[in-house]
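---------- Forwarded message ----------

FYI, see the Protein kinase domain-containing protein record below. Original note from H. follows.
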Amino acid sequence: MGFVSWGIVRVGLLLVLTLPFSTGDTDPRDVSAINSLYTSLGSPPLLGWIPAGGDPCGEGWQGVSCVFSNITELRLSGLNLGGILDEGIGDFESILIMDLSHNQIGGSIPSNIPLTIRNLFLSGNQFNGSIPVTLYALTQLTQLFLDDNRLSDNIPDSFQELRSLVDLDLSGNNLTGQLPPSFGNLSSLTTLHLQNNKISGVLDVLQDLPLSDLNVENNILSGPIPPKLLNIPNFRKDGNPFNTTILPSPPAALPPFIAWAPSPLHGPPRGRPADGPSSSLVLPQWSKGRVFWTNKRVIVIAAAGIITLIVLGVVLLLVLRCFRGNKNSNKHGANAYNSSGKKLNQVQKSSSQPAYQTEKVDKATVTRLIDGYGLESGDTGISPNLQDEQLLDANTRPASSRHQKNHEINKGGLDVKSLSIRPPLPPPLLPTVEEASVSPIIPTEVNGPGRSSRGRDSCSLDVTAFTIASLQQYTNSFAEENFIGEGMLGGVYRAELPDGKLLAIKKLDTRASRWKTDAEFLQLISTISKLRHPNIVELEGYCNEHGQRLLVYQYCRNGTLYDALHIDDEMHKKLSWNARVRVALGVARAIQYLHEACQPPIMHKNIKSVNILLDDKLAVRVSECGLAPLLSSGSTSEFSGSLFVSYGYAAPEIEFGSYTCQSDVYSLGVVMLELLTGRESFDRSRPLGEQFLVRWAIQQLHDIDALVRMVDITLNGVYPVKSLSRFADIISRCVQSEPGFRPPISEIVQDLLHMI
């Protein structure tokens, strides 16, 4: 009887332990993702799979493995699958392994591969196009196999953060160009297969990697082979026009009598010889004496030539100095001093500090941060009843700029270069700040082979050029019922294309765009059009006709995060704790793309909940990316009133005229505080000590009891306390008053990723 009872207990325990895997409660987001995948693959005959609904985990769908209610593995190798992979693949919440190798899947590889993926196998299919630049986001990746497809173009320089990648196979494609510099960051890479492509250049970037298996056969690689690569146990290099000379390592000293062996392709190598038998030095016995005496004569001649050049240079310098002295003695000193007799201080822009890292603006033109900076806390996103923005310190702004409106594409940041003011001589008069014009910083290349444009015809535009007539048709002549909101750069309208697709049209105000020539405007469009990321609002097109300039964006039906948190009760209910963590991660990923994937880095300058849009699946789309230069197009006198940041979101350093990438991190921390507490960044209706969210919350983030009391009450306590504590810790680091104490955006992304 005892044995029977123990057996019953064991069976009961087994049922309890396996219950999460068999309850049939698959995460709805995973169900939606796998349904979308099934449809995009052409509804193949897979056991259990259906195009809508179902329970993949509970019903044991073919190739599907789960942990609790989440799909973690998809293994569908060699099943003769066709179709394509659509963007719905990015909706899997916790997938770790995806094996779709050796099928007939075509199209391009989606740009939104799930961030949790660790092993991705797409070998032996018919994928075409380029490798997505968003690879950099897959920081958990350990194996990536894209071999034997039809991929083309350059290998993207997107491997900076893939430090966990162990195996990479890109062989058997049509890849061109040189190896990207970010390959040097693959500190865990042991296997790299690049054979049977059209890759050119040299292998220097690979020499410090821990490789044990390297195959670069049948490419067009050239140049000397780094000696370290020859020590790789399995190094295959045939079928390349390599220089037979091995790239030498620097020795302790170079004997003066040794001659270099000429290279058949590139002539004498420029490096120093390597020690040991691998050296490329040639010293035949019969020629040693002749080489010695030939080099001796060369050294003597060279020394004599150098001495002659030095003497001639000294003589020439003395003559020039005498000439200048005589010329200057006939002039008075008016050119060196101003009217008061004081020497003019030269104003120069430092070339050692890139303008995109830290930007300085005149402190007087920046709205004071004390007691609030920028937009009124009553911003209502795209709500028709937009409240006027009020500044606490009204005297710091012109009267004409004290009333602004906000909407989902509000331009609150300004991209300003350090001014380089060169006064005319004579007399040396420095222009005032109001007279100086501000030039925008516009990257000429963003994460790809973009080209610097100097005119209309040289811009590389990957978006549609709309006509005024077509946009009038799509918006019903910009009718009031299609009006979304008004911002500093103009109004936003909803447009519907004949096929039913919705777009958002940004009609730029002439004040913002008149300072740019057509060529400059098209260059800005070219830059923005290259910003491609799943968490950034995509530019669909533009219009530049009859003095009108408009921007055409993808439309997000669920409005802004501000609306979801503070206005729309139905949307608020959808923001569960896990949904809020995913929103924070999406915003962080967008900022990481701007800061780290774009060269030069792009600072957003206006991160706030009203600029974070939500699509049908509550996925994040950050707006305003790359548009800050429009606010710096005119003179500072006209736009000085616009140099402000929204209430409660501004980093302290902006008060001193400085904006860095870490200022964006601060604003992200404020958005995360909104997600945590459900409060606005600034709320005038609350008691004085609670109006500014950061000031009120910062002292409570490390007190677990106070933290629990801070949480949005609409969550009804449905959240893991450990996750809550981690989230608060990230916020605390983001809103540090000193920029240097804030973490880099990549660290924030990793911390949030570990919470999912």
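H. also flagged this: The longest strand covers residues 490-496.
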